Amino acid sequence: MSSLLSLQGVHTHIGAYHILHGVDLEVPAGQLTMLLGRNGAGKTTTLRSIMGLWQASQGQVLFDGQPIQALATPEIAQRDIAYVPENMGIFGDLTVRENLLLAARRARSLKELDTTRLDWLFSLFPALKKFWLYPAGKLSGGQKQMLAIARALIEPRRLLLIDEPSKGLAPAIILNLIAALKELKATDTTVLLVEQNFMVAKALGDRVAVMDNGRVVHAGAMAELAADEALQQRLLGLSLAAHQ
Ligand SMILES: Nc1ncnc2c1ncn2[C@@H]1O[C@H](COP(=O)(O)OP(=O)(O)OP(=O)(O)O)[C@@H](O)[C@H]1O
């Protein structure tokens, strides 16, 4: 199994704090890898270290076999890696249309947007079509999350990093999100998805990595972890089991 992204012994310091203590992580091409772990385990810091938003102080981040840990964030993004942060990064005062257009690096006007791609995004997230000319700030939490993911997908991407998309969403909306992400999976996009919700993890994950205290402490098939309650309990404790 070939990895599109590989982290080898990545350490990250934030100011005086040593947060990542040698993260080893493999993200196979064409699969969806879940990154799980208790609060504060280092999941967001790992995504930010991949994107160059925190500089890794030691270790390697290899994308398609090339080291990227010394590159600046715009250069990393230019490799067609997209990041949907937990706060989604959408512009509340701008319309859905403007938010999508701003996210497209190559298209300067709506006419230049790839219409086939836009139609595909509308089929994944019908609310975007419905609220095309609405200010994004007026969308519901679930719709905002879908807009944030659509922004990341407005141009072809080789790797998508998504931080806790289900956070704060009602159960019915989470089901919609799972359905949309399943469709995305069917296109063989490589995804690294941070989650706290084990139901989402079980529904979507091909592979899983579990972090604790700034390290990956378990890696394997998602189905294996989903079938082993004792392992879930040991690795994730009650904070996650409560979401099942
Ligand atoms: N800007 C910062 N300054 C200092 N410490 C930070 C900063 N950002 C994160 N940390 C610390 O780094 C550790 C890992 O945080 P991180 O956000 O990566 O965890 P996480 O696994 O994503 O957790 P959560 O699920 O709660 O978002 C935590 O102890 C956190 O307090």
UniProtKB/TrEMBL annotation:
Keywords on record: Amino-acid transport, ATP-binding, Cell membrane, Membrane, Nucleotide-binding, Transport
CDD domains for this protein: ABC_TM1139_LivF_branched
Tell me any Pfam family this protein matches. Answer: ABC_tran
Q: Which GO terms describe its biological process?
A: L-amino acid transport
The GO terms this record gives for MF are:
ATP binding; ATP hydrolysis activity; branched-chain amino acid transmembrane transporter activity
Q: Give residue ranges for domain ABC transporter.
A: 5-238
Which PANTHER family does the entry link to?
A: ABC TRANSPORTER ATP-BINDING PROTEIN, HIGH-AFFINITY BRANCHED-CHAIN AMINO ACID TRANSPORT ATP-BINDING PROTEIN LIVF
Family stated for the protein in its record = Belongs to the ABC transporter superfamily.
**Name of the protein in its database record:** ABC transporter ATP-binding protein
Q: Which organism is it from?
A: Paucibacter sediminis
Lineage of the source organism?
Answer: Bacteria, Pseudomonadati, Pseudomonadota, Betaproteobacteria, Burkholderiales
